[in-house]
Design goal:
globular, 66% helix, two-stranded antiparallel sheet, 2 strands
């Protein structure tokens, strides 16, 4: 709801923002909501009364907590450059080709890797490792509840793709579209289509990686999160701060 999918459009003499809710602390709001998923996954594994489900729930909670730190630190670089926590303002700061993927390449890579871990996608789907845990925390579930687990997984992947497109790929910004001579209505439509195209490309990347890279071991997953991702996120934060001060 807080992700803007287009610029303002004039309807019946009124400017309507193509964003359901413009929250002043949009990024913090998103991070807070993604953290709540830990409780649902852990409780679903514990309430199944199965050792496989319990281990899957514990793995998932440890994985989410480990990678949320690096994810939060990687976003701070974007906040420092744009000077705001509002997602629509961050998109407006990426006008033209000033996309954050060019200004924050390391932060972009870190955020994408953390998104794979947060959404339990390969190669980070350790909570659902079939050779070890049968099906992870939803082993004992079937029918509607099992379907809801899978629906939530793909919904989180779509949400992560929208956030990546908003923070690093310019959101609804399409370079040189404002000076193309189109009417404001056509510009708004093309901006929405551009945002949908960016989200679709990120989703395709998520799916392509699933069939490309094998699953990590659990110790490799934890070592990557704490010994590689977190220090790199801190380095990215320090370098961004120094560049802003010097420039």
């Amino acid at each position: 709801a807080v992700v803007p999918f287009g610029d303002s459009i004039n309807l019946f003499g009124r400017d309507v923002k193509l964003q359901i809710a413009s929250v002043d602390i949009g990024i913090l709001y998103i991070l807070a909501l993604t953290s709540l998923g830990v409780y649902g996954v852990t409780l679903s594994g514990w309430s199944s009364n199965s050792k496989y489900s319990l281990l899957g729930g514990l793995r998932s909670s440890a994985q989410l907590i480990s990678y949320e730190l690096a994810m939060g630190l990687s976003i701070i670089g974007v906040v420092m450059i744009s000077g705001t926590l509002q997602l629509d303002k961050i998109v407006e700061a990426q006008a033209g080709w000033r996309w954050n993927i060019f200004l924050q390449p390391l932060g972009f890579i870190l955020f994408v890797i953390c998104s794979f871990a947060e959404t339990n996608r390969l190669p980070f789907d350790l909570p659902e490792a079939e050779p070890e845990l049968v099906a992870g925390y939803h082993t004992e579930y079937s029918g509607l509840k099992f379907g809801l687990f899978y629906l939530s997984e793909y919904a989180s992947m779509l949400t992560a793709s929208a956030i990546i497109a908003t923070l690093y790929l310019g959101g609804w910004q399409v370079p040189f579209l404002v000076h193309s001579g189109y009417s404001p209505e056509w510009i708004s439509i093309l901006q929405v289509l551009g945002f949908c195209l960016k989200v679709s490309l990120v989703v395709f990347f998520f799916i392509a990686i699933r069939w490309t890279i094998p699953r990590f071991r659990y110790d490799q997953l934890m070592n990557l999160g704490w010994k590689v991702m977190l220090p790199l996120a801190v380095v990215n934060l320090l370098v961004t701060g120094l560049v802003i001060i010097l420039l």
